[in-house]
Amino acid sequence: MIRLPRTVWIQLAILAVVTLVAGAVMLFGFVKLPALIGIGRYTVTLELPSSGGLYPSSVVTYRGSEIGRVDEVGVTDSGARAVLKLESSTKVPADVSAEVHSRSAVGEQFVQLIPQTDDSSGPFLGNGDVIPVSRVTVPPEIAGLLDATNRALQAIPQDDLRTVVDEANTAVAGLGPELSRLVDGSAALAIEAGKTVEPITTLIDQAPPVLDSQARTSDSIRTWANRMAAITGQLKAQDAAFGHLLNQGAPTLEEGRALFDRVAPALPILLANMVSLGDIAVAYRNDIEQLLVLFPQGTAVMSAIILPNAHTKQDYKGVYLDFNLNLNLPPPCNTGFLPVQQQRSPVMEDAPERPAGDLYCRIPQDSDLNVRGVRNIPCETVPGKRAPTVEMCESDEQYVPLNDGYNWKGDPNATLSGQGVPQYPPGQDPRTAPPPVVAVPYDPGTGEYVGPDGKRYTQGDLAQTGEKTWQSMLIPPSP
Question: Whole-angstrom Cα distance, residue 79 to residue 97?
């Protein structure tokens, strides 16, 4: 018996290990033995309207990766059926569609699974599931397409086709890059249009009324085009002047920009104030409209009275002027203002706070005195009502006069009227304070004082000291 050396045994062992590893790699890596016996695979049935050129062992892909093979292809009563063997390690959503594509023009069909949603939480395809024919797309038959193309080419006259090819070569010679960009742009446009099929369909459906309106107004469009042509013709004829305008326009615009830069700090305040003025204008729009209606007529009347007295017997010409000043006629209205006892002398230089309350002439609204006073301001929001304040206009309160005369009567603060009126300073309420001394302020510098009747008098010698004689009374006062 021949005894092999130890080195040979080691070599044989290494050869056996390599053989086993190579066989395992071939069986599990290339032949995929577990898949052949169904381990790690599940079966899905694909309903097809036609076979689409599929054959057993066609590739099945999902998101660009191979996940299985077509196990068999059969015929059914309504089309065809393909049985897919898919890898269990790849989870495919149950809501999936299938498309049959060709790897090349000569065939090599494969199935592409496309998920309808990006939901990775399930449900997923499982063993025995069926993808219905409504979610399957197959390409047109290549043979029928080639036959139809061949018949179409045979129907074209060869001489005319040769002429078309020659003319096309002449037309597009050297335009390869431009045509490539045109084709790429058209493809991108078609892809984007495919994503918005419904809006495009709606646009096409709604286009006929618009196009019909254009057809009905063709005469107007033609007139507009003719006038636009006339305008552009004028621009062409005045090209030099228009160019000069453009040349001068740039400095003008620059000056305008500089002007806006200068007024930019004050412009927001101005616009904010304009908003307030706009609100006032909106509230008084009816009055402004009436003013604009009457202003031209008033201007015409004022222009008419200054015309010379033409064709008259008067010696003077122009407007009649009257220099009658009508001093103290009628006398001023003191009702509603501070009583005489509270009025300050003009020689006093301090500036006291304004008394609380509203100071205005508070006589009846139908009085002939101070008819344009604040008591007769029309209420903008309440037609027919007149009131001195906005608050009284917007409330149910009615104007109540203090009395119908020129001066104060009764309670000098009119506290019984129920309206807000000027009040005495603190501590001088006539209802709690002692009666004031019957006296009026007298200014020795000017000799003026206000009498109990509210009128102003002047007497310069009331403050002089010493005895008076009849001789001193005859001497005029010193200047």
Answer: 17
